[in-house]
Specification:
The chain contains 4 helices and 12 strands. The protein has an 8-stranded antiparallel β-barrel with strand order 1-4-5-6-7-8-9-12. It has a 4-stranded antiparallel sheet with strand order 3-2-11-10, covered by helices on one side. A hairpin with a 4-residue loop joins strand 8 and strand 9. Helix 3 crosses helix 4. The protein is elongated, with a radius of gyration of 37 Å. With about 280 residues, it is of the alpha+beta class.
Length: about 280
C-alpha cells in the first residue's frame, strides 16, 4: 500500500508540474505566434500564391487566335532555264527574247507584285508558345503584247500561288498586353498555277498555256499586333521571307514542247489585318 501511495503521489506531482508548464506555454502562445505557427502560415501563404499564379497561367492568356488580312507578295521568277523548239535557253538572254517577246520576257526577269489574303489559326500551349496553321493566296493577272515580224501576239496571263504551312509562333499572348510582337517559323507546301491565253493575227498561234506544280515552301518572319479590346487585336504589319523551292515542270497547251527548269523563288510578303481571340 505504501509503495502504491508513493507512486500515486509522484504521478500527481508530475501531472501538476506538466499542467503548470502547459499553462505557461499556452500563455506564451496567446501572446505571440510560435515558430510552428509562423511556419504553417508561411506555407499556407506560399500555397495560395502558387495557386493564384497557376490560375493566371491558364486563364490570363489567349489560348486560340484567328487571323485574317490583306497580303502583298513580291514574287521572284522561278525559271532557271526553259526548253522550247529543242533548245534550252536562259529566260533573260537575248536568244530568249526571240522566243518570248520583249514584253513577256520581263515576267521571267523581274519581281512582280501579287495581291491576296493571309489567314491563320494558332493554339497557344502557354503564354508565349503556340502551334500555327497558315494559308495564303496571292494572285496576279497581266497582259503582254509583243510583235514577231509582221505578227502581233497578245498573251493574257493569270498566276496563282497558295501556301499551306504549319509551324511554331512565339508571342506574348497575355490578355492585358497592349503591344504584342511575334515571330514564327512555318513549313509546308506551295501550289503554283499558271494560265496564259495566247491570241495572234495567225489563227495557228491561238492556244492556252497551263502549268501546275507543288513545291516545298517556308515562311520566316513576324510582325506586331496591338490590342483593341478583349477579343480583337489589329495587326499593324506582318513581314515574311517566303522561299518556294520550285520543282521542274512542263507547260502544256502550246503547239510545241515547253519545259521549265526551276530555281528557288525568294519571295517576300507584307500585310496587315485583324486578330480575333
Amino acid at each position: 500500500m505504501n509503495t502504491k501511495k508513493q507512486t500515486f503521489v509522484v504521478a500527481l506531482a508530475t501531472a501538476t508540474d506538466l499542467s503548470k508548464q502547459y499553462s505557461r506555454a499556452e500563455t506564451s502562445i496567446n501572446r505571440r505566434p510560435s515558430i510552428i505557427q509562423k511556419l504553417m502560415l508561411s506555407i499556407l501563404f506560399i500555397s495560395l500564391c502558387a495557386f493564384q499564379a497557376s490560375a493566371q497561367s491558364s486563364e490570363d492568356y489567349n489560348k486560340v487566335e484567328f487571323y485574317g488580312g490583306f497580303s502583298h507578295n513580291r514574287v521572284q521568277p522561278n525559271t532557271e532555264t526553259f526548253t522550247a523548239f529543242g533548245s534550252t535557253l536562259a529566260p533573260c538572254s537575248s536568244e530568249a527574247t526571240e522566243v518570248l517577246g520583249e514584253n513577256y520576257q520581263t515576267s521571267f526577269c523581274q519581281r512582280r507584285g501579287f495581291n491576296g489574303f493571309d489567314t491563320s489559326i494558332t493554339y497557344n500551349f502557354n503564354r508565349y508558345l503556340g502551334i500555327k496553321g497558315n494559308v495564303t493566296g496571292h494572285y496576279k493577272s497581266d497582259r503582254f503584247v509583243d510583235t514577231f515580224g509582221p505578227e502581233t501576239v497578245t498573251l493574257n496571263t493569270r498566276d496563282r500561288v497558295h501556301n499551306f504551312l504549319v509551324g511554331v509562333q512565339v508571342k506574348d499572348n497575355h490578355k492585358a498586353a497592349r503591344f504584342k510582337p511575334f515571330a514564327h517559323a512555318l513549313f509546308g507546301a506551295a501550289r503554283y498555277n499558271f494560265r496564259g491565253v495566247n491570241t495572234s493575227d495567225n489563227p495557228d498561234n491561238n492556244y492556252t498555256l497551263r502549268s501546275n506544280v507543288t513545291s516545298f515552301a517556308m515562311k520566316l518572319g513576324g510582325g506586331i499586333d496591338v490590342r483593341v479590346n478583349r477579343r480583337i487585336d489589329i495587326r499593324l504589319i506582318g513581314l515574311d521571307y517566303n522561299p518556294v523551292f520550285t520543282r521542274d515542270y512542263d507547260i502544256t497547251g502550246a503547239p510545241y514542247s515547253l519545259t521549265q527548269q526551276s530555281k528557288t523563288a525568294h519571295n517576300f510578303t507584307i500585310g496587315f489585318g485583324i486578330t480575333f481571340h
